[in-house]
């Protein structure tokens, strides 16, 4: 009887491992054939060589870009350089990227920026919220943007026990934001185990000075997050599950699931087209090439537009896809008046006219 129990448990364990292995391989498959779809008028942005992980564009056309992310398991072309925040004015005929100065009193050498989000106050003061990983920890930094000086004034560092493995952020009020946790564990080995076993222990949290709480959970890896133009829905990318969750926002800041939009690619950061309300998603069409990076066979890039988000059949179209010959590891795309910026986890950034 004891041998039968042992054999049964062994068989069940092997079956589970086999199922997990097949699922893991399917998620990170590199066999997908990529046929390039690229706007005719695109060029790489000078000065952005070490990633452009997230991009947020103000209604005025000023675009903030986070660069230099150091993230466990991801390639990095400048491991000894701190991260930086760049600015582009998309109203210019040939916009250039300019690194913003950061005020004294902030440890610039420890800046390791991930997701970013802007907030414009009633008096038109612009604040930039930055997910930061100093020494591989997680904080949220609040900066005030000084447009004339092209500089950032550091105001506050936010820490909390729920702000662990933070990936992205969307600001919804003064010192109020939603943020995603993309991994439960912090050890790289345990993160790999978590990805392999698909524990679904990651979540979305809400932060305010009065209250911090988990408002949505059960994600394989909660990644990019943004909010609809009418502020009624929050969109969350579950990168490992290849989908986007549409969550309804309630008066108490809690979120409830409205629907899930399943895709065929790993979805990273999300933005909303200010003209149409469509979702733009920066995606990874062959993610295993990021985990095992080979410059001779680089990871590709993909940008999707999702229209009619709340309908029974949302429409998904491809704005950009490349096999890595131009742009590697796309993480975000953002548009403004017919212009599109595409950022990457560790590579370059692209400017396109649609």
UniProtKB/TrEMBL annotation:
Catalyzed chemical reaction(s): an N-acyl-L-homoserine lactone + H2O = an N-acyl-L-homoserine + H(+); a phenyl acetate + H2O = a phenol + acetate + H(+)
Cited InterPro entries: 6-blade_b-propeller_TolB-like (IPR011042), Arylesterase (IPR002640), Paraoxonase2 (IPR008364), Serum_paraoxonase/arylesterase (IPR051288)
The entry's keywords: Calcium, Disulfide bond, Glycoprotein, Hydrolase, Metal-binding, Signal
Cofactor binding mode and count: Binds 2 calcium ions per subunit.
Pfam family membership, one: Arylesterase
Signal sequence interval, chain numbering: 1-15
Listed EC numbers: 3.1.1.2
Cofactor(s) recorded in Swiss-Prot or TrEMBL: Ca(2+)
UniProt keyword Transmembrane helix, yes or no: no
Entry similarity comment: Belongs to the paraoxonase family.
Stored PANTHER family: PARAOXONASE (PTHR11799), SERUM PARAOXONASE_LACTONASE 3 (PTHR11799:SF14)
Protein name per Swiss-Prot or TrEMBL: Paraoxonase
